[in-house]
Amino acid sequence: MRDQLRVLRHGLFVQWRVFRGLHTWRTWTFAWLSRLLVQACFYALIGRMLGSQEQVDYLLIGNLVAIMAIDATVVVLLAVGERQSGTLALMVAAPATHLTAYLGKGLVHLGSGVAASTIAFLALPPLFGVALPWPWAGFVPLMILVVGVACYCYGTCVAAFVLGFPSARWVALNLSYLVLMTFTGVNVPTSFWPDWVRALTSVLPMTHGLAAIRSFVAGGPLPGVFADLALELAVGAGWIAVAALGFDRMVTRGRRDGTIEFAS
Q1: Considering only CA atoms, which of 76, 69, 1, 85 is closest in space to residue 246?
Q2: Domain boundaries in the chain?
Q3: For the chain, percent helix, then strand, then coil, each to nearest 5?
Q4: Is residue 99 within 8 Å of residue 156, measured between CB atoms?
Q5: What was the pLDDT predicted at 259?
Q6: Model pTM score
Q7: b/e sequence 93-127, b meaning 16+ C-beta within 10 Å
Q8: Helix (H, G, I), strand (E, B), or coil: what is residue 259?
Q9: Where does the protein end up (predicted)?
Q10: Whole-angstrom Cα distance, residue 214 to residue 211?
Protein backbone atom coordinates (compact mmCIF):
# COMPACT_ATOMS: atom_id res chain seq x y z
CA MET A 1 0.00 0.00 0.00
CA ARG A 2 2.89 2.36 0.74
CA ASP A 3 4.28 1.86 -2.77
CA GLN A 4 0.84 2.39 -4.29
CA LEU A 5 0.41 5.72 -2.49
CA ARG A 6 3.96 6.81 -3.31
CA VAL A 7 3.46 6.16 -7.02
CA LEU A 8 0.08 7.89 -6.90
CA ARG A 9 1.64 10.93 -5.24
CA HIS A 10 4.52 11.17 -7.70
CA GLY A 11 2.17 10.78 -10.65
CA LEU A 12 0.05 13.62 -9.33
CA PHE A 13 3.14 15.81 -8.83
CA VAL A 14 4.43 15.18 -12.36
CA GLN A 15 1.09 15.94 -13.97
CA TRP A 16 0.71 19.06 -11.84
CA ARG A 17 3.98 20.35 -13.29
CA VAL A 18 2.74 19.57 -16.78
CA PHE A 19 -0.58 21.27 -16.05
CA ARG A 20 1.18 24.39 -14.81
CA GLY A 21 3.20 24.40 -18.02
CA LEU A 22 -0.03 24.46 -20.02
CA HIS A 23 -2.02 26.87 -17.85
CA THR A 24 -1.46 29.94 -15.77
CA TRP A 25 -4.26 31.14 -13.51
CA ARG A 26 -5.16 33.63 -16.25
CA THR A 27 -5.44 31.09 -19.06
CA TRP A 28 -7.33 28.62 -16.85
CA THR A 29 -9.76 31.34 -15.73
CA PHE A 30 -10.28 33.30 -18.93
CA ALA A 31 -9.87 30.53 -21.52
CA TRP A 32 -10.95 27.23 -19.97
CA LEU A 33 -13.27 28.22 -17.10
CA SER A 34 -14.98 30.97 -19.08
CA ARG A 35 -15.69 28.51 -21.91
CA LEU A 36 -17.39 26.13 -19.46
CA LEU A 37 -19.40 28.93 -17.85
CA VAL A 38 -20.63 30.11 -21.24
CA GLN A 39 -21.72 26.56 -22.08
CA ALA A 40 -23.77 26.32 -18.88
CA CYS A 41 -25.29 29.75 -19.52
CA PHE A 42 -26.25 28.69 -23.05
CA TYR A 43 -28.44 25.86 -21.76
CA ALA A 44 -29.92 28.02 -19.01
CA LEU A 45 -30.90 30.61 -21.61
CA ILE A 46 -32.79 27.91 -23.51
CA GLY A 47 -34.91 27.45 -20.38
CA ARG A 48 -35.46 31.21 -20.22
CA MET A 49 -36.53 31.27 -23.88
CA LEU A 50 -39.10 28.60 -23.03
CA GLY A 51 -40.49 30.99 -20.43
CA SER A 52 -40.16 28.53 -17.57
CA GLN A 53 -38.12 29.13 -14.43
CA GLU A 54 -38.48 25.42 -13.69
CA GLN A 55 -36.70 24.63 -16.97
CA VAL A 56 -34.01 27.22 -16.17
CA ASP A 57 -33.40 25.55 -12.79
CA TYR A 58 -33.28 22.07 -14.32
CA LEU A 59 -30.94 22.95 -17.20
CA LEU A 60 -28.59 25.10 -15.17
CA ILE A 61 -28.08 22.64 -12.32
CA GLY A 62 -27.58 19.76 -14.75
CA ASN A 63 -24.98 21.62 -16.77
CA LEU A 64 -23.17 22.93 -13.69
CA VAL A 65 -22.51 19.31 -12.71
CA ALA A 66 -21.69 18.36 -16.32
CA ILE A 67 -18.84 20.90 -16.31
CA MET A 68 -16.99 18.59 -13.96
CA ALA A 69 -17.55 15.57 -16.24
CA ILE A 70 -15.87 17.32 -19.17
CA ASP A 71 -12.67 17.82 -17.19
CA ALA A 72 -12.76 14.39 -15.55
CA THR A 73 -12.96 12.56 -18.88
CA VAL A 74 -9.87 14.36 -20.22
CA VAL A 75 -8.10 11.41 -18.61
CA VAL A 76 -8.89 9.56 -21.88
CA LEU A 77 -6.24 11.63 -23.66
CA LEU A 78 -3.53 11.07 -21.07
CA ALA A 79 -3.15 7.33 -21.66
CA VAL A 80 -2.67 7.76 -25.40
CA GLY A 81 -0.29 10.66 -24.75
CA GLU A 82 1.88 8.42 -22.58
CA ARG A 83 2.00 5.80 -25.31
CA GLN A 84 2.85 8.30 -28.04
CA SER A 85 5.61 9.89 -25.99
CA GLY A 86 7.14 6.50 -25.19
CA THR A 87 6.68 6.78 -21.42
CA LEU A 88 3.92 4.19 -21.01
CA ALA A 89 6.45 1.39 -20.64
CA LEU A 90 8.12 3.31 -17.79
CA MET A 91 4.78 3.71 -16.03
CA VAL A 92 4.15 -0.02 -16.37
CA ALA A 93 7.53 -0.66 -14.71
CA ALA A 94 6.59 1.43 -11.66
CA PRO A 95 6.54 -0.39 -8.28
CA ALA A 96 2.74 -0.37 -8.19
CA THR A 97 -0.15 -1.65 -10.23
CA HIS A 98 -0.49 -0.34 -13.78
CA LEU A 99 -3.73 1.38 -12.88
CA THR A 100 -2.28 3.19 -9.86
CA ALA A 101 0.57 4.60 -11.94
CA TYR A 102 -1.91 5.93 -14.43
CA LEU A 103 -4.55 7.21 -12.00
CA GLY A 104 -2.21 9.69 -10.37
CA LYS A 105 -1.54 11.37 -13.71
CA GLY A 106 -5.17 12.40 -14.17
CA LEU A 107 -6.09 13.58 -10.67
CA VAL A 108 -5.11 17.14 -11.59
CA HIS A 109 -7.85 17.22 -14.21
CA LEU A 110 -10.36 15.81 -11.74
CA GLY A 111 -9.43 18.62 -9.35
CA SER A 112 -9.73 21.17 -12.15
CA GLY A 113 -13.20 19.89 -13.02
CA VAL A 114 -14.45 19.97 -9.44
CA ALA A 115 -13.05 23.49 -9.00
CA ALA A 116 -14.66 24.73 -12.22
CA SER A 117 -18.01 23.15 -11.37
CA THR A 118 -17.94 24.60 -7.84
CA ILE A 119 -17.12 28.10 -9.10
CA ALA A 120 -19.95 27.85 -11.61
CA PHE A 121 -22.32 26.64 -8.88
CA LEU A 122 -21.48 29.68 -6.77
CA ALA A 123 -21.53 32.25 -9.60
CA LEU A 124 -24.30 31.36 -12.03
CA PRO A 125 -27.49 30.52 -10.05
CA PRO A 126 -27.95 34.12 -8.78
CA LEU A 127 -27.72 35.38 -12.39
CA PHE A 128 -30.62 33.16 -13.46
CA GLY A 129 -32.79 33.39 -10.36
CA VAL A 130 -32.12 29.82 -9.25
CA ALA A 131 -32.87 29.53 -5.54
CA LEU A 132 -30.39 27.49 -3.49
CA PRO A 133 -30.93 26.29 0.10
CA TRP A 134 -28.16 28.28 1.76
CA PRO A 135 -26.24 27.56 3.96
CA TRP A 136 -26.91 23.86 3.30
CA ALA A 137 -26.01 24.36 -0.37
CA GLY A 138 -22.40 24.53 0.80
CA PHE A 139 -22.45 20.72 0.86
CA VAL A 140 -23.13 20.50 -2.89
CA PRO A 141 -19.41 20.77 -3.85
CA LEU A 142 -18.80 17.60 -1.81
CA MET A 143 -21.51 15.87 -3.84
CA ILE A 144 -19.93 17.18 -7.03
CA LEU A 145 -16.67 15.59 -5.87
CA VAL A 146 -18.43 12.22 -5.47
CA VAL A 147 -19.84 12.52 -9.00
CA GLY A 148 -16.41 13.61 -10.25
CA VAL A 149 -14.73 10.54 -8.82
CA ALA A 150 -17.28 8.29 -10.52
CA CYS A 151 -16.81 10.12 -13.84
CA TYR A 152 -13.05 9.86 -13.46
CA CYS A 153 -13.34 6.09 -13.00
CA TYR A 154 -15.54 5.96 -16.10
CA GLY A 155 -13.03 7.99 -18.12
CA THR A 156 -10.20 5.75 -16.95
CA CYS A 157 -12.13 2.73 -18.16
CA VAL A 158 -12.61 4.32 -21.59
CA ALA A 159 -8.90 5.16 -21.66
CA ALA A 160 -7.92 1.55 -20.95
CA PHE A 161 -9.61 0.44 -24.17
CA VAL A 162 -8.61 3.44 -26.30
CA LEU A 163 -4.94 2.58 -25.71
CA GLY A 164 -5.20 0.02 -28.49
CA PHE A 165 -6.68 2.59 -30.90
CA PRO A 166 -4.72 5.85 -30.38
CA SER A 167 -6.18 7.56 -33.45
CA ALA A 168 -9.66 7.32 -31.90
CA ARG A 169 -8.72 9.25 -28.75
CA TRP A 170 -10.59 12.47 -29.56
CA VAL A 171 -13.67 10.62 -30.76
CA ALA A 172 -13.62 8.54 -27.57
CA LEU A 173 -13.23 11.64 -25.38
CA ASN A 174 -16.07 13.54 -27.02
CA LEU A 175 -18.39 10.54 -27.06
CA SER A 176 -17.64 9.66 -23.44
CA TYR A 177 -18.84 12.96 -21.99
CA LEU A 178 -21.54 13.57 -24.60
CA VAL A 179 -23.10 10.23 -23.64
CA LEU A 180 -23.22 11.46 -20.04
CA MET A 181 -24.72 14.81 -21.01
CA THR A 182 -27.36 13.12 -23.17
CA PHE A 183 -28.56 10.19 -21.09
CA THR A 184 -27.90 10.88 -17.39
CA GLY A 185 -30.49 13.61 -16.78
CA VAL A 186 -28.42 16.70 -17.53
CA ASN A 187 -30.77 18.28 -20.08
CA VAL A 188 -33.75 15.92 -20.14
CA PRO A 189 -35.04 13.66 -17.33
CA THR A 190 -33.99 10.03 -17.54
CA SER A 191 -37.70 9.19 -17.58
CA PHE A 192 -37.82 10.60 -21.12
CA TRP A 193 -35.95 7.57 -22.46
CA PRO A 194 -37.36 4.07 -23.11
CA ASP A 195 -37.05 1.57 -20.29
CA TRP A 196 -34.12 -0.28 -21.87
CA VAL A 197 -32.18 2.99 -22.25
CA ARG A 198 -32.97 3.90 -18.64
CA ALA A 199 -31.60 0.52 -17.55
CA LEU A 200 -28.33 1.31 -19.32
CA THR A 201 -28.14 4.81 -17.86
CA SER A 202 -28.37 3.36 -14.36
CA VAL A 203 -24.80 2.08 -14.76
CA LEU A 204 -23.48 5.40 -16.07
CA PRO A 205 -21.79 7.84 -13.69
CA MET A 206 -23.61 11.09 -12.92
CA THR A 207 -27.08 9.51 -13.22
CA HIS A 208 -27.47 8.87 -9.50
CA GLY A 209 -25.19 11.66 -8.31
CA LEU A 210 -26.99 14.32 -10.30
CA ALA A 211 -30.32 12.99 -9.03
CA ALA A 212 -28.97 13.33 -5.48
CA ILE A 213 -27.91 16.94 -6.08
CA ARG A 214 -31.25 17.86 -7.63
CA SER A 215 -33.12 16.27 -4.72
CA PHE A 216 -30.90 18.00 -2.15
CA VAL A 217 -31.30 21.43 -3.76
CA ALA A 218 -35.07 20.91 -3.91
CA GLY A 219 -35.19 20.01 -0.21
CA GLY A 220 -35.78 16.30 -0.73
CA PRO A 221 -35.36 13.67 2.02
CA LEU A 222 -31.76 13.13 3.08
CA PRO A 223 -31.96 9.28 3.15
CA GLY A 224 -32.81 9.34 -0.56
CA VAL A 225 -29.93 11.74 -1.26
CA PHE A 226 -27.44 9.51 0.56
CA ALA A 227 -28.80 6.43 -1.18
CA ASP A 228 -28.24 8.02 -4.60
CA LEU A 229 -24.71 9.10 -3.64
CA ALA A 230 -23.95 5.55 -2.47
CA LEU A 231 -25.19 4.22 -5.82
CA GLU A 232 -22.95 6.76 -7.57
CA LEU A 233 -19.92 5.46 -5.70
CA ALA A 234 -20.91 1.87 -6.49
CA VAL A 235 -21.14 2.73 -10.20
CA GLY A 236 -17.70 4.35 -10.04
CA ALA A 237 -16.27 1.26 -8.34
CA GLY A 238 -17.68 -0.90 -11.12
CA TRP A 239 -16.07 1.23 -13.84
CA ILE A 240 -12.68 1.27 -12.12
CA ALA A 241 -12.80 -2.52 -11.76
CA VAL A 242 -13.38 -2.86 -15.51
CA ALA A 243 -10.58 -0.32 -16.09
CA ALA A 244 -8.19 -2.46 -14.03
CA LEU A 245 -9.01 -5.49 -16.18
CA GLY A 246 -8.57 -3.44 -19.35
CA PHE A 247 -5.16 -2.08 -18.35
CA ASP A 248 -3.98 -5.52 -17.25
CA ARG A 249 -5.07 -7.01 -20.57
CA MET A 250 -3.28 -4.27 -22.52
CA VAL A 251 -0.05 -4.68 -20.54
CA THR A 252 -0.11 -8.48 -20.77
CA ARG A 253 -0.65 -8.39 -24.52
CA GLY A 254 1.98 -5.67 -24.99
CA ARG A 255 4.58 -7.66 -23.07
CA ARG A 256 3.76 -10.79 -25.04
CA ASP A 257 4.03 -9.29 -28.53
CA GLY A 258 6.39 -6.36 -27.81
CA THR A 259 3.91 -3.62 -28.76
CA ILE A 260 3.64 -1.79 -25.46
CA GLU A 261 6.01 0.95 -26.66
CA PHE A 262 4.28 1.42 -30.02
CA ALA A 263 2.17 4.52 -30.59
CA SER A 264 -0.33 2.73 -32.80
Answers
A1: 76
A2: 2-257
A3: 80, 0, 20
A4: yes
A5: 59
A6: 0.86
A7: ebebbbbbbbbbbbbbbbbbbbbbbbbbbeebbee
A8: coil
A9: Membrane
A10: 5
